[in-house]
Protein backbone atom coordinates (compact mmCIF):
# COMPACT_ATOMS: atom_id res chain seq x y z
CA UNK A 1 0.00 0.00 0.00
CA UNK A 2 1.46 3.33 -1.10
CA UNK A 3 -0.02 6.43 0.47
CA UNK A 4 -0.55 9.68 -1.37
CA UNK A 5 -0.59 13.15 0.18
CA UNK A 6 -3.80 14.07 1.98
CA UNK A 7 -5.91 17.11 1.23
CA UNK A 8 -7.46 19.14 4.04
CA UNK A 9 -9.96 21.99 3.67
CA UNK A 10 -11.88 23.58 6.57
CA UNK A 11 -12.67 20.47 8.56
CA UNK A 12 -12.59 17.99 5.69
CA UNK A 13 -9.80 15.78 4.47
CA UNK A 14 -9.01 13.23 1.81
CA UNK A 15 -6.58 10.33 2.00
CA UNK A 16 -5.48 8.16 -0.95
CA UNK A 17 -3.40 5.05 -1.37
CA UNK A 18 -2.56 2.58 -4.12
CA UNK A 19 -3.45 -1.11 -3.86
CA UNK A 20 -2.15 -2.97 -6.89
CA UNK A 21 -3.98 -1.68 -9.94
CA UNK A 22 -6.49 0.24 -7.83
CA UNK A 23 -6.41 3.57 -6.08
CA UNK A 24 -8.51 4.07 -2.96
CA UNK A 25 -9.56 7.54 -1.85
CA UNK A 26 -11.36 8.23 1.43
CA UNK A 27 -13.25 11.49 1.99
CA UNK A 28 -13.28 12.42 5.68
CA UNK A 29 -14.89 14.89 8.01
CA UNK A 30 -12.40 15.97 10.67
CA UNK A 31 -13.70 16.18 14.24
CA UNK A 32 -11.82 19.34 15.10
CA UNK A 33 -12.65 19.47 18.86
CA UNK A 34 -11.22 15.96 19.30
CA UNK A 35 -8.14 16.78 17.23
CA UNK A 36 -7.61 19.95 19.27
CA UNK A 37 -8.03 17.98 22.52
CA UNK A 38 -5.37 15.49 21.46
CA UNK A 39 -2.96 18.26 20.58
CA UNK A 40 -3.61 20.20 23.78
CA UNK A 41 -3.06 17.15 25.99
CA UNK A 42 -0.18 15.67 23.97
CA UNK A 43 -2.31 12.59 23.43
CA UNK A 44 -1.29 10.02 20.85
CA UNK A 45 -2.03 11.08 17.30
CA UNK A 46 -3.95 7.86 16.78
CA UNK A 47 -4.38 4.61 18.69
CA UNK A 48 -4.56 1.47 16.60
CA UNK A 49 -5.32 -1.13 19.25
CA UNK A 50 -8.70 -2.78 18.70
CA UNK A 51 -9.14 -4.08 22.26
CA UNK A 52 -8.52 -0.65 23.77
CA UNK A 53 -10.98 1.02 21.40
CA UNK A 54 -13.64 -1.62 22.05
CA UNK A 55 -13.18 -1.08 25.78
CA UNK A 56 -13.48 2.69 25.43
CA UNK A 57 -16.76 2.29 23.55
CA UNK A 58 -18.25 0.68 26.66
CA UNK A 59 -17.58 3.86 28.65
CA UNK A 60 -19.52 7.13 28.55
CA UNK A 61 -17.58 10.17 27.36
CA UNK A 62 -16.51 12.60 30.11
CA UNK A 63 -18.27 10.58 32.81
CA UNK A 64 -16.49 8.76 35.67
CA UNK A 65 -16.40 4.97 35.86
CA UNK A 66 -15.22 3.29 39.06
CA UNK A 67 -12.00 1.37 38.48
CA UNK A 68 -13.02 -1.03 41.23
CA UNK A 69 -15.87 -2.21 39.01
CA UNK A 70 -13.51 -3.33 36.24
CA UNK A 71 -11.96 -6.77 35.99
CA UNK A 72 -8.20 -7.29 35.69
CA UNK A 73 -8.21 -7.30 31.88
CA UNK A 74 -10.30 -4.13 31.71
CA UNK A 75 -7.96 -2.42 34.17
CA UNK A 76 -5.03 -3.25 31.88
CA UNK A 77 -6.90 -1.69 28.97
CA UNK A 78 -7.74 1.29 31.17
CA UNK A 79 -4.05 1.84 31.95
CA UNK A 80 -3.26 1.62 28.24
CA UNK A 81 -5.95 4.20 27.45
CA UNK A 82 -4.58 6.54 30.12
CA UNK A 83 -1.01 6.20 28.82
CA UNK A 84 -2.02 7.24 25.31
CA UNK A 85 -4.15 10.15 26.54
CA UNK A 86 -7.49 8.63 25.58
CA UNK A 87 -8.70 8.44 29.18
CA UNK A 88 -7.93 10.04 32.53
CA UNK A 89 -7.63 8.44 35.96
CA UNK A 90 -8.75 10.44 38.97
CA UNK A 91 -8.53 9.66 42.66
CA UNK A 92 -11.81 10.31 44.49
CA UNK A 93 -10.80 8.87 47.86
CA UNK A 94 -7.72 7.46 49.53
CA UNK A 95 -8.17 4.03 47.95
CA UNK A 96 -10.68 4.73 45.18
CA UNK A 97 -10.13 5.95 41.64
CA UNK A 98 -12.30 6.58 38.62
CA UNK A 99 -11.62 6.38 34.90
CA UNK A 100 -12.92 9.08 32.60
CA UNK A 101 -13.00 8.44 28.87
CA UNK A 102 -11.93 11.54 26.93
CA UNK A 103 -11.38 10.26 23.39
CA UNK A 104 -13.82 10.06 20.53
CA UNK A 105 -13.17 9.10 16.90
CA UNK A 106 -11.16 11.90 15.24
CA UNK A 107 -12.84 11.56 11.84
CA UNK A 108 -16.03 10.40 10.16
CA UNK A 109 -15.65 8.53 6.88
CA UNK A 110 -17.97 10.13 4.33
CA UNK A 111 -17.15 8.29 1.09
CA UNK A 112 -14.75 5.57 -0.02
CA UNK A 113 -13.95 5.66 -3.73
CA UNK A 114 -12.15 2.83 -5.51
CA UNK A 115 -10.60 3.86 -8.85
CA UNK A 116 -9.86 1.18 -11.40
CA UNK A 117 -11.20 -0.82 -14.34
CA UNK A 118 -14.80 -2.00 -14.15
CA UNK A 119 -13.98 -5.54 -13.11
CA UNK A 120 -15.03 -7.91 -10.36
CA UNK A 121 -11.73 -7.37 -8.55
CA UNK A 122 -12.49 -3.65 -8.29
CA UNK A 123 -15.95 -4.35 -6.92
CA UNK A 124 -14.59 -6.93 -4.48
CA UNK A 125 -12.14 -4.37 -3.12
CA UNK A 126 -14.96 -1.88 -2.61
CA UNK A 127 -17.08 -4.43 -0.74
CA UNK A 128 -14.32 -4.89 1.86
CA UNK A 129 -15.06 -1.36 3.05
CA UNK A 130 -18.75 -2.09 3.68
CA UNK A 131 -18.49 -1.72 7.50
CA UNK A 132 -16.88 1.71 7.29
CA UNK A 133 -18.72 4.03 4.94
CA UNK A 134 -20.52 4.77 1.69
CA UNK A 135 -18.71 3.30 -1.31
CA UNK A 136 -18.41 3.88 -5.03
CA UNK A 137 -16.37 2.72 -8.01
CA UNK A 138 -14.84 5.31 -10.31
CA UNK A 139 -14.18 3.63 -13.66
CA UNK A 140 -13.05 4.79 -17.10
CA UNK A 141 -15.64 5.41 -19.80
CA UNK A 142 -16.62 2.51 -22.01
CA UNK A 143 -19.11 -0.30 -22.14
CA UNK A 144 -20.19 -1.44 -18.68
CA UNK A 145 -20.89 -5.07 -17.86
CA UNK A 146 -24.60 -5.05 -16.97
CA UNK A 147 -24.33 -8.09 -14.69
CA UNK A 148 -21.49 -6.49 -12.74
CA UNK A 149 -23.45 -3.25 -12.59
CA UNK A 150 -26.38 -5.14 -11.05
CA UNK A 151 -24.01 -6.73 -8.53
CA UNK A 152 -22.61 -3.35 -7.56
CA UNK A 153 -26.13 -2.03 -7.04
CA UNK A 154 -27.02 -5.10 -4.96
CA UNK A 155 -24.06 -4.46 -2.65
CA UNK A 156 -24.84 -0.75 -2.41
CA UNK A 157 -21.70 0.29 -4.27
CA UNK A 158 -22.15 3.28 -6.54
CA UNK A 159 -20.65 3.44 -10.02
CA UNK A 160 -19.25 6.63 -11.52
CA UNK A 161 -17.77 6.91 -15.01
CA UNK A 162 -14.88 9.35 -15.37
CA UNK A 163 -13.48 10.75 -18.61
CA UNK A 164 -11.91 13.93 -19.93
CA UNK A 165 -15.24 15.75 -19.55
CA UNK A 166 -15.66 14.92 -15.87
CA UNK A 167 -17.64 12.35 -13.91
CA UNK A 168 -21.07 10.83 -14.55
CA UNK A 169 -22.96 8.80 -11.97
CA UNK A 170 -24.38 5.58 -13.40
CA UNK A 171 -25.54 4.10 -10.08
CA UNK A 172 -25.81 5.97 -6.80
CA UNK A 173 -24.11 4.71 -3.65
CA UNK A 174 -26.42 3.32 -1.00
CA UNK A 175 -26.59 5.40 2.20
CA UNK A 176 -24.33 4.20 4.99
CA UNK A 177 -26.58 3.32 7.92
CA UNK A 178 -24.76 1.04 10.36
CA UNK A 179 -26.75 -0.47 13.19
CA UNK A 180 -24.05 0.63 15.65
CA UNK A 181 -20.57 2.08 15.78
CA UNK A 182 -18.09 -0.71 16.47
CA UNK A 183 -14.53 -0.96 17.66
CA UNK A 184 -13.53 -2.01 14.15
CA UNK A 185 -15.11 1.17 12.76
CA UNK A 186 -13.19 3.27 15.28
CA UNK A 187 -9.98 1.43 14.43
CA UNK A 188 -10.49 2.17 10.72
CA UNK A 189 -11.08 5.84 11.57
CA UNK A 190 -7.86 5.92 13.63
CA UNK A 191 -5.84 4.31 10.84
CA UNK A 192 -7.17 6.71 8.24
CA UNK A 193 -6.61 9.67 10.58
CA UNK A 194 -3.10 8.47 11.32
CA UNK A 195 -2.39 8.32 7.60
CA UNK A 196 -3.87 11.79 7.07
CA UNK A 197 -1.84 13.11 10.00
CA UNK A 198 1.46 11.72 8.76
CA UNK A 199 0.80 12.88 5.19
CA UNK A 200 -0.21 16.38 6.25
CA UNK A 201 2.46 17.00 8.89
CA UNK A 202 4.98 18.34 6.38
CA UNK A 203 2.55 20.96 5.09
CA UNK A 204 0.79 21.72 8.37
CA UNK A 205 -2.61 21.04 6.83
CA UNK A 206 -4.16 19.30 9.84
CA UNK A 207 -2.72 21.92 12.18
CA UNK A 208 -4.26 24.67 10.10
CA UNK A 209 -7.61 22.90 9.99
CA UNK A 210 -7.61 22.39 13.76
CA UNK A 211 -7.24 26.14 14.26
CA UNK A 212 -10.03 27.08 11.86
Topology at a glance:
Blueprint: E1 2-9, E2 12-19, E3 22-30, H1 32-40, H2 50-57, E4 64-66, H3 72-83, E5 87-93, E6 96-101, E7 107-115, H4 120-127, E8 135-140, H5 146-154, E9 158-163, E10 166-171, H6 183-200, H7 205-211
Parallel strand pairs: 7-8, 8-9
Antiparallel strand pairs: 1-2, 2-3, 3-7, 4-6, 5-6, 9-10
Could you give a short description of this structure?
The protein is of the alpha+beta class and about 210 residues long. The protein is built from seven helices and ten strands.
Give structural notes.
Helix content is 33%, strand content 32%. The chain has two domains: 1-31 and 105-212, no CATH class; 48-102. Helix 2 packs across helix 6 (183-200). The chain has helices spanning 32-40, 50-57, 72-83, 120-127, 146-154, 183-200, 205-211; strands at residues 2-9, 12-19, 22-30, 64-66, 87-93, 96-101, 107-115, 135-140, 158-163, 166-171. The protein has seven helices and ten strands. The chain starts with a strand and ends with a helix. The protein is an alpha+beta fold. The chain is elongated, with a radius of gyration of 20 Å. The strands form two sheets. Strands 1-2-3-7-8-9-10 form a seven-stranded mixed β-sheet. It has a three-stranded antiparallel β-sheet with strand order 4-6-5, with helices on one face.
Rg, rounded, reads 20 Å
Let me know the largest β-sheet: 7 strands, mixed
Q: Can you tell me the overall shape?
A: elongated
Kindly report the average pLDDT value: 89
Q: How many structural domains? A: 2
Amino acid sequence: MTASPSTTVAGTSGVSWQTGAHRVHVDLELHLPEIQRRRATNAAGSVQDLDTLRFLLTLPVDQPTALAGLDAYERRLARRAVRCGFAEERAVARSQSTLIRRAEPPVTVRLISVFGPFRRSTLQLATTFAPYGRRRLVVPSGRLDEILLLEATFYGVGVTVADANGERTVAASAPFQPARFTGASWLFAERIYGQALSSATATGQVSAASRS
